[in-house]
Design brief:
The chain is built from 11 helices and 6 strands. The chain has about 260 residues and is α/β, with parallel strands linked by helices. Helix 1 (about 25-45) packs across helix 3 (about 75-85), helix 2 packs parallel to helix 10 and helix 5 runs parallel beside helix 11 (about 235-245).
């Protein structure tokens, strides 16, 4: 009986990684922003209920057209709430367990950089966590002027570092924002499973959290993308680091790493 061919990991000399969903959780920031919008919208419209707000939130995130948008998500309340979240960024940040240690392990074997859509405050969290000392470059959309899914952000980082796209691996949690742009540049991609160990910031409305969890699950379905089928897959950065540093065969979409 003929054995099926073994799919081994591509030749990888350099690694770029996303931040949200890989090094720290995105959800606490989003929930803090939504809570801020809810409070400000409620001040402007005392008749606003949590049910009406979460219905509008659902439309906002799932990009469903609304003829009667409630105040908040599309008003100055959103901008003001985001300013507050940025002031609290370091306090709201929740690191993915083991992610910084995994980053350090990867950096011992290959140069690593960050390529992410994040505010400048992200760098403060990376410094405080010790991640910065393992990075060759931090390329953020807010400082570079290019945002994913435009492949130009990753391309700029690769050019600055003198890397070869053909031997660069982009690590992220989104097929559309991480894997697809990398593959358009001729680079490789690895996708980690969106982590679920985050907790809501103190003071967040429980009903808001409940609906947000439902919307988050639906958003993950919406994000399905053909780029995922051509990516390496791992549970998290720690598992990916173990696979790459041990030089074990990395499995594709049909053999998700377990």
């Amino acid at each position: 009986m003929t054995k099926p061919p073994t799919t081994s990991a591509p030749a990888i000399a350099t690694i770029a990684t996303d931040v949200g969903g890989v090094l720290y959780y995105d959800e606490p920031f989003e929930l803090a922003w939504l809570q801020g919008v809810l409070e400000r919208a409620g001040e402007a419209d005392p008749t606003l209920t949590i049910e009406r707000f979460t219905a509008e939130m659902r439309r906002f995130y799932l990009q469903r057209a609304s003829a009667t948008a409630s105040p908040g998500l599309y008003s100055p309340a959103g901008a003001h709430a985001w300013t507050d979240v940025r002031r609290r960024w370091a306090d709201l940040a929740q690191l993915v367990p083991g992610a910084v240690s995994a980053l350090a392990t990867l950096a011992q074997h290959r140069p690593v950089c960050v390529v992410a859509n994040q505010p400048p405050e992200c760098e403060e969290v990376l410094r405080a966590s010790g991640a910065t000392e393992h990075l060759a470059l931090i390329a953020l959309d807010t400082t570079g002027g290019i945002a994913k899914p435009d492949p130009g952000l990753l391309g700029w980082a690769i050019e600055q570092l003198g890397w070869n796209p053909a031997t660069t691996l982009m690590v992220g949690d989104r097929p559309d924002h991480d894997a697809a742009p990398a593959q358009r540049l001729g680079a490789h991609a690895a996708l980690v499973t969106p982590p679920t160990g985050w907790s809501a910031p103190p003071g967040t409305d429980p009903d808001l959290v409940a609906v947000y969890r439902e919307v988050r699950a639906e958003r993950l379905e919406v994000r399905r993308h053909p780029a995922a089928d051509h990516s390496l897959h791992a549970r998290d950065l720690a598992e990916l680091a173990e696979q790459l540093t041990d030089r074990a065969p990395a499995r594709r979409h049909t053999e998700v790493l377990r």
